[in-house]
Amino acid sequence: MRNFITVVSAAMLALWPQPASFSQTQSGKPPDVIGAAPGAQIVPPPAIYAFPNGRKYVYGVEWHLFTAGTATVKMESAGSEQKVLAAADSAGAVNMLYAVHDRFEARFDPHTFCSLRVSKHTEEGPHKRDTDIHFDYPRRKSVLDEKNLKTGETKHTENDIPACVTDVITGFYYLASLPLQTGNSYRFVVNDGGKTTEAAAHVEAHEQVKTPAGTFQTVRVTAEALSGPLMGKGKVWAWFTDDANHTPVQMRAKLGWGTLLFRMQRLEQDAH
Question: Quick check: helix, strand or coil at residue 209?
Fold first, then answer.
């Protein structure tokens, strides 16, 4: 059960690719991507796209039919940046076996969808860590600084990145800004402080999905990593509402140690 929201978010980021029709930059030249094939890039949101600020997605998480915990994701405006907050907490028998209490904050540029930095506080079983990731685009580096809160041990690493990446938290929203038409295939690049990962997704079909939050007409997308640590180790299916919002109401991640099912419990909206 280690880091279940990060596992699913990372796999879901195969949903945040760029459509084949956007496989070139505005200049007509292929994108400059380190460690990824041409066509895998992050594209800016269209001018008409409205960020879902103030909406909080609340999910129940199931593992082998057991209630595993809850996960929440929310976006807010933060001056000239956008901020995404996410949390994961284990519950029930799973909490007794392997307690998880994780908190994440990611910042990105709303004009480009390029990730800027990520902060994590993770408590997973006996492990407790604080992690900060900064995306240094002038140097084309992701810079990770991590501290083990139990031992005091620190780690500093740098890895190559392309001109723009998303991360496992920001990517939760990236696909919502893109067309989700049946038959479309997508590719994107993601970095979480380590090696840049390329992933692919395919928009498969329209389906009706019933969750505790209600019954929704959705479009189903499947995703998997083409490189990096998750390559060949799992697949994710996500169901997004078949409307302009593309709200992710259900996710299923099949990994080597089991399957996690995320079902929307409710959608909360900040009062204005």
Answer: strand
Question: 185-190 and 154-160: which strand pairing?
Answer: unpaired
Q: How far apart are CA 189 and CA 198, in angstroms?
A: 5
Radius of gyration of the chain (CA): 18
Structure tokens belonging to residue 258: 């089991």
Model confidence, pTM: 0.82
Contact 87, 72 (CB under 8 A): yes
**Helices in the chain by DSSP H: which ranges?**
4-12, 92-97, 171-174
- Which among 4, 104, 53, 25 has a CA at the least distance from the CA of 271? 53
Q: What tokens appear for 139 in the block?
A: 């140097």
| pLDDT at res. 205 | 95
CA distance to 36, 73, 94, 172, 234, per residue, from 69 (Å)? 35, 14, 8, 19, 21
DSSP lists the bridge partners of residue 53 as: 75
Q: Which of 44-53, 67-76, 98-107, 251-260 has the lowest mean pLDDT?
A: 251-260
Place of tokens 């998997």: 224
d(CA 85, CA 55): 11
